[in-house]
Amino acid sequence: MQRLKAFPKAKLTAVLEMMIQKATVWVPSMIAGVSRFAPYRPGTDIQMGTNTAISPKEALFPSTEKIYKFSAYGIDGDFEPVDPSVGPQILFGLRSCDMQGILCLDDVFLTRGYVDDFYGSKREATTLITLGCVTPGADCFCASMGVNPAEHDASDAQMYDLGDAYGIIARSVKGEALVKDLMAAGLLSDTDKSQGPTADFVLKVDSEGITEKLQQMFDHPLWDELSRKCLNCGTCAYLCPTCHCFDIAEKKRNQHCGVKIKCWDTCMFSEYALMAGGHNPRPSKKERVRQRFMHKLRYFPERYGKLQCTGCGRCIAKCPVNLEITDVIKLAGEAKSDG
Amino acid sequence: MNQITKEMRDLARELLASGEVKGLIGWTKGSRWYLTPPLFITRPEEAEQLYFDQFAVNNLTGLLLDYRYGDDKIALFVKGCDSRGIVRLLQDHQIKREKVLVIGVPCMGMSDKKAVTDPRQPVELPLLDKCLECRYPNPVIADRLIGGALVSGEPSEPKGLTASEAAKRGVGSKQADRFAQVKAIEAMSADEKYAFWQAQHEKCLRCYACRNICPACNCRECIFESDKKGWVNKSATPTDNAFFAVTRAMHVAGRCVECGECERVCPMDIPIMALNRKVIQDINELFGESDAGTDLDGKMPLGLFKNDDPEEFM
Amino acid sequence: MVEQKINPVATLSDVKRINPLIPMKAKVTRIIDETADVKTFCIAKEEAGRFTAPFRTAPGQLAMLSLPGVGEAMFSATDAPEHLQLSIKKVGVLTDALHEICPGQTVGVRGPYGNGFPMDEYKGKNILFIGGGIGLAPVRSVVRYCVDHRDDFGQLHLIYGSRSPADLVFKYDLFDTWPAVRDFKVSVTVDRGDDQWKGNVGFVPAFIEQLRPDPENTVCILCGPPIMIKFTLGILDKLGFTPENVITTLEMRMKCGIGKCGRCNIGSCFVCLDGPVFSLAQLKTMPNEY
């Protein structure tokens, strides 16, 4: 059996400095008081200890991106493509929950007949390096959603928290190239250490059978009760690593030209499903709250075979009214089905 | 169970059982010791779920907007800061006075859950800045009072059952610092100010939590809801975000009740109150000192014309 | 000790690199005024001086139409070799602007989207078309198909209604083209008549009850305003039409058309991919949220 390779935590910047020679390296960092993944530069305030407040989906699915340019002069007009390709990039220090989130985004953007190239080209250019999580945060519950915090086998390379060092193994061709580079630079050495057990979770919920349960609960009064305190803001969706809904909107430079943008949108907003002419299939908070949780826990599993909640806990941490998905799962589980 | 919680439950039970109100908005104990989120109840037996402590920070008045077109009378609990939101909604003709039953509670000052280090271990936490700066710890309007609360339309000391606790915790002890952040930003050079706000606006996700919790943001259709007119853009770029932030601040100018909820709920920690306070400071300087949402019959500075109003722009 | 696994992430290099969200440039070649608030737009792409349809659509499929600088929306399409035909009612910002344009206008189109009607399954059957108002637009794409493949189907019967005689769309088809087709009965009604109107006056559901179409070996294709659908379904049930044989098309707000943007879902179905054509039997298994 091969021995685990590792580099001391003190050498983290040296490792990142080496990696940025070949790629943009997104690292968990503190930017203007908020932790998020951002391209590493010398001097970046790196935050490896806890997961970021904002999910890393921004690296693959930015909140706003141009998809094409248009012009309109009288009866003439034109559409000019925007190149979706990006240079090589590395997502460094992803937690298992966020890796699982990327698998959910993959299902949406890369399968079912069409590939969204704006996501696809970034995804293809990205090497994913996961980091084993030994100290879950106050709002984390990934283990309850079937995610293993210690490691995730879908990444290109897995890092392990060994206390004073990070262990690393390659899991794909991309990951092997990266580990080889680190070896060549003399940054890795053999270790006998292994990652300790993940600490106990504060939040736990039994999500077993939730999809089947919700199939019987579309007309349940629970949705009305749950939605009463909801503000219908987009905090939960915009922090979520799996929420993928977007709008295609126009941004005009002047009356003749502009760009079409793809930007985040959420089913929480009242105009989200509103049709020209005024009909709204989800006219009130109740329908919108139901849509969000049904999508995560029932519709997505029905369509793609996996839960769309990875237990990262960001929506729980930041919801202005503490409408917590763990409570929803618990209450739905306890409720008498209406069907 | 604390005395205020007990009185809350008793009154709620009575109001719902007698049919005086159809629904009641209060707080309940959340999933962790440092969470006391909103709760809406309609049945007397649900009154047992009500709870009040130093984490019942949510201003509940914005939730009344969901019932503005209904005929049902709704009761809700208000702390001092929250109560100004009721005046806001009444002055803006968003709710009818006879359709809301306001229950005043005394406030011991709200704790800052961001200071939690161990989610399993309850400890004494520092007050939120907005509580240190609080000038209206007592309800400015109420139909019923519990916990010994007293109505006061003027800046005052905390009253009621929690008065000494509030004083000990420092409620209102930093009133003088209310405009400190505004002054600090004003002292910056133009370039520094630009860099400061640019960094803040870069963070904005346009989730609209600030707008949706605000009792002054009560437009039936928000301009930011629709990009069809071409006035605003859905893209979350620093420029568009700044346009949103400034438009929001100017739209609540003279109407912001300083509950600080916009800033508390911002998932990106944008100092939204700095912008609101800057506008308040300017209005105070131009039109004389006033506090929005403290006097139901008073005229709002920007809703009233006086012959001696400043008019440099004319 | 951790065991090393090699798990290469699937590469995407074999996927064709086209941006599915960019419209194809096309021109409006002809605009037909149907009613005061409905126009039919013929849209073609120009290639070597010849105009052809930008893409072909199956009956019931959708096309995304964009007017640069105004916006983009999904419409039900009628197929023709020389152009794509979209009948559009004035209901909002984009459709208002579309009603102002002239032939020659450059527009963007993308598609075709959606499942369309499973026409092969209807072979040898009688077809009952029921339409209300602008709801005749998606129905018309099927009618045209049936007329073009007349021998594949049994009796054809169209029951159509609108608010007033002036609101009847496709009058040239209703009163000229279709009645001339073999075994094609066309029954038209209006909610309120006028001095010239000699046809039936009354709502569509009542008219169906009066006409009593035979459910035997018949597929019913139904499209119209929700209130008409609601009452019509009751009547069809009474007449003996089974949910499997009542087919309709749904309308939801759409942005991408390719099942990514999320907003046209009904339960785990995306109307842009899995619809817009659903049988009543299918709808009964889906959440009632459309």
UniProtKB/TrEMBL annotation, chain B:
This is 4Fe-4S dicluster domain-containing protein. The keyword Iron applies. It comes from Heliobacterium chlorum. It comes from the Bacteria. Pfam families: Fer4_8 (PF13183). The lineage of its organism: Bacteria, Bacillati, Bacillota, Clostridia, Eubacteriales. The keyword Iron-sulfur applies. Residues 195-225, 247-276 form the 4Fe-4S ferredoxin-type domain. Keywords: Iron, Iron-sulfur, Metal-binding.
Automatic annotation (TrEMBL), chain C:
This is FAD/NAD(P)-binding protein. It comes from Heliobacterium chlorum. CDD domains: sulfite_reductase_like. It comes from the Bacteria. It holds the Pfam family DHODB_Fe-S_bind. PANTHER family: ANAEROBIC SULFITE REDUCTASE SUBUNIT B (PTHR43513:SF1), DIHYDROOROTATE DEHYDROGENASE B (NAD(+)), ELECTRON TRANSFER SUBUNIT (PTHR43513). InterPro entries: Cyt_c3_hydrogenase_gsu, Dihydroorotate_DH_Fe-S-bd, FAD-bd_FR_type, FNR_nucleotide-bd, OxRdtase_FAD/NAD-bd, PyrK_electron_transfer, Riboflavin_synthase-like_b-brl. Residues 21-119 form the FAD-binding FR-type domain. Signal peptide: none annotated.
